[in-house]
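User: Predict the structure for this protein chain, please.
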Amino acid sequence: MRSRPFGKAPTGEEVYAYTLVGDGIEVEALNYGGFITAIRVPDRNGTMADVVLGYDDLDGYLHDRAHFGGIIGRYANRIANGRFTLNGRQHQLAQNNGQNHLHGGSRGFDRVFWRAKDVSRSDRDALQLDYLSKNGEENYPGNLSVTVRYSITGTGRLRIDYLATSDADTILNLTNHTYFNFAGTGANNILGHQLNLNASRFTPVNSALIPTGELRGVEGTPFDFRKAYRIGERIDAPDEQLQFGKGYDLNWIIDRSDQGEVTAAQAYDSVSGRALEVRTTEPAIQFYSGNSIVPGTRGKRGEMYHPRSGFCLETQHFPDSPNQPTFPSTMLKAGARFASATAFAFSAR
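Assistant: Here is the predicted structure, written as structure tokens:
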């Protein structure tokens, strides 16, 4: 693994970019926000290209509002009205998405410095990032110690491990918010990419994108990706759920027979031949088709990003789980150990 200075924050802290190298893959990440700034993989002709959206310099990430590649926490996705009750006590969080709380609040985990450590072995490059989220940060309870580890674990394979403990009961939902575009440029949209989701149900939302509590079957809807469809094939269908999100921005419940690591999603670009398989221990995945990227956002190499320039596959627990008693719990008990893993396996055909 190698590192290089990436810039200095206004606070004077030095930001470094760390590059993990493996067979058929290079991954670059920052110690600020844990941002994955690049993933370079070959197309069917062996030509390497960067397949994630982002910025060329630190200033872009310091002012980023699209969460391009960042670590998301303490709570990924939305919490209704920014409120939840834990052990009989109500906690009011930042309402940074209309009336709701989104992606950890005003200063989520993609807005903090992480302590970086090279934990590579002879057979793999690996970067460990550690952060202590203090009791009361963004009004969350408990001193939360978090570790996120990026590892190259095989040909074209990036693994992300999430570990955490707290000294008081709290809630936790961690993910990574990388936007993919297998064309190797954000100047093209991702509507021609094919997507398959291993999910027969999803959690429908209201107009504020808060789950209603229903677990709805995908059969006969534009949300059935149990076989591969082009992302753009049904994205503008006259469906209320698509209208609420201006495209796909929903939580799919992964079909699984056990609690281990299973395939959640597969994506493919027929033009470049690049393909991706996502495997995870998480119960759900948020497929977001980049609908709210601000038009004219200046990204890497001076490219102008627009809505649907990239798509996200965010492995996670369900949105608003602390307020939805029928959803899987996101409470982390004091002294308990949280562990989760997601792997992104790239190939070409």
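The two ends are 28 Å apart (CA to CA).
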